[in-house]
Amino acid sequence: MQVPLAAGPLDWSLVGGAVPLALKILGVVSLIGLVFSRNRRWWTRLLPLALVLAALLTILVKIAVNDWWKPFPDDLPTEILFWIGILFAGLCMALFKMPLLRWRGRAGALVAAFLVAVFAANQCNIFYDNYPTFRTMLGPQDTVSLKDAAGGKDSSVLEVPEGKTISEVWKPPAGLPAKGDVAKATIPGTKSGFKAQDAYVYVPPAYKAAQRPLLPVLVLMAGQPGAPENWITSGQLPDMLDAFAAQHQGLAPVVVVADQLGSPFKDPLCMNSRLGNIQTYLAEDVPAWITKNLQTSTDRKQWAISGLSNGGTCSLQMAVNAPERYGAFIDISGEFQPTNGSVQSTVKQAFGGDAAAYHKVNPADVMKRQKFPDTAGVFVAGLDDQPYLGQARQIFQVAKGAGMKVELVELPGNHSWQVWRPGLEQQLPWLARQTGLIR
User: What is the pLDDT of residues 28-44, one digit of tens each?
Assistant: First the structure.
């Protein structure tokens, strides 16, 4: 979504429109300026050395990230490596050019290198669509305390007759807020012992009514590396849900963005294993906390779970391993099965070599043994997102064979917020119908 410049600098789009175009022009002009020189030594020795060093640094980053550190479940895409190479080229050319320049020229070279770096960094941002605006780079804004968001649990409840949806009996009172509230919260691992990153809670305008409907619940998760706040900033979740609520008289699900990782770069694989009791956390601790702190429906038919990438894989894991809690799921860009690279290494790391323990909870195996006629789900994947698109098609067929009421949605884009954001937004009406919010 592109925001007009009149909206103010913090809301200017970083992925489309005037700002990326300006950065592109400045970056390309700066790059050309760094390449150009009348000095023969520059062309014969210094420029080749600068470009070779930039290439070596890019290769080092590739090896360090993909083979040594491995902070991401997937290798760095070629396009991202290209822009990293451009960034290093700008910095190296400025560095090697310094001996040939006077102080003003040196200052200009540093400015040019900075502009090239900003341009390259924003091209990476455009690829992932991670920061749509300057404001999203600042972290979650306009949050309130959990007490202010949740209110008391003693509000009178709007009764919904059997066979009716909430929207069919709901009448918004005068003075209902136009927007919902977002609060930061700590959800303890009371039974699981899991120490999660802070969660975020969204309550829609209807939750603020004196006679409160028992709204459905969506537990939402980010990817890895990541944290719950990613859905608030990069995912623009509050705006997404406020827009839905505005179209439905203030009604929207209560959303709890929970953590399944423990820290941004960990991956305990969303199961009970040597890596942590994540299944217990999401199946028992999180629901117990929601029931204690929020006044919502407790019916599993009105509880759903969703997530992107690692969180998408986790949402399916919970749907098949805790069906008594979650009646619906939206798996966005998830994997066919949870692994830390391969099934063999996962079995060794998480279960000490006990393959049976892994296959007992692996969704693909569970769905081959058990039927789920009372579970509904949506698989979402990007058309340019391999291998995730192929895996989504594969696991969709397995879920369908297990009797689930499932759909497969393929959207333009790659493994990025180009898919993840609309992947949830476009499924909100399905979710609302599935959980009895609207007809």
Answer: 999 999 999 999 999 99
